[in-house]
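Project outcomes to date are best conveyed with an example. Our students and postdoctoral researchers have been running inverse folding experiments weekly, and each run begins with a structure described purely in tokens. The record below, which covers 296 residues, was selected by the lab manager from last quarter's runs and is presented without edits.
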């Protein structure tokens, strides 16, 4: 069976092919690592921003409560203040919904651009901004369960053509979870940046490989140029010109060893041919007299 598969026809092409393969593997690994690093870094920065926003929301609520507690009892009655089982210096059971309503009404936070909502430990909505309500994001059991364990939860939801990153942050006072703050942000800008990076890698890596192929062929041709010189010199050497030798490059590599080996071989061939000529001359001289007698 004849194998008609086309393959490299020279050492130069073989070296270039292996060079391209190794370079392609390196570029793909580097590009993948770079993409993952950038995406991970963007997600980490978004998470830090969400945590800061959640802490800011909780801080404003506490600050508003402190401002209420510093007022007189006479004005407190007009603020729908109806605590049950109040904790000195803290938020009592049953006080939180009214506190959040007053906080939202007086600070006008719900109409701002911030996307957040506040839920209790049972998952009941206490308050939410208008932007958060419009996204219609679910409250997962995982977020509530982990939040009640005093863990910060990070989740990503798919909405239409964008991804939404949500952090669930528990608010703790006196070793008791008061409520959970959820803050959301669109990852559209970060996703666009990651897509541009991926597109750049997809375009640049083949372009680099094409340029590297030309450079590889040039480098291989330059490195193998002494071999071409040796081939040309070897073609000129015949049985009548065995005194000629192959050019020895001033290097310390395999090409120098190859030229020295070829020269040693030529020297041995020259000695063998000289001995063969001497033997032929002696044999001719010894046979000349008998042949003359036989001819006579």
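After processing, the design step wrote out the following sequence:
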């Amino acid at each position: 069976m004849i194998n008609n598969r086309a393959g490299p026809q020279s050492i130069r092409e073989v070296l270039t092919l292996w060079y391209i393969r190794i370079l392609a593997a390196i570029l793909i690994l580097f590009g993948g690592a770079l993409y993952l690093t950038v995406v991970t870094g963007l997600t980490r920065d978004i998470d830090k921003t969400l945590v800061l926003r959640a802490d800011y929301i909780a801080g404003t609520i506490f600050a508003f409560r402190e401002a209420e507690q510093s007022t007189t009892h006479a004005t407190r009655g007009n603020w729908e203040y109806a605590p049950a089982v109040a904790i000195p210096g803290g938020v009592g059971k049953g006080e939180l919904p009214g506190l959040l309503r007053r906080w939202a009404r007086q600070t006008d936070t719900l109409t701002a651009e911030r996307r957040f909502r506040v839920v209790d430990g049972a998952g009941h909505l206490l308050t939410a901004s208008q932007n958060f309500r419009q996204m219609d994001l679910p409250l997962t059991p995982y977020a509530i369960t982990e939040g009640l364990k005093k863990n910060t939860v990070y989740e990503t939801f798919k909405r239409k053509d964008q991804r939404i990153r949500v952090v669930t942050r528990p608010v703790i006072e006196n070793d008791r979870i008061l409520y959970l703050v959820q803050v959301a942000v669109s990852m559209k800008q970060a996703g666009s940046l990651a897509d541009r990076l991926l597109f750049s890698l997809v375009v640049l890596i083949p372009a680099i490989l094409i340029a590297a192929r030309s450079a590889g062929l040039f480098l291989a041709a330059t490195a193998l140029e002494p071999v071409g010189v040796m081939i040309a010199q070897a073609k000129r050497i015949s049985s009548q010109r065995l005194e000629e030798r192959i050019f020895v490059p001033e290097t310390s590599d395999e090409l120098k060893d190859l030229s020295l080996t070829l020269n040693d071989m030529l020297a041995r061939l020259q000695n063998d041919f000289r001995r063969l000529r001497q033997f032929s001359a002696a044999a001719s001289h010894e046979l000349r007299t008998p042949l003359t007698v036989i001819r006579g």
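The longest strand covers residues 162-173. The chain has two domains: 11-197, 226-284. The training component of this project remains on track.
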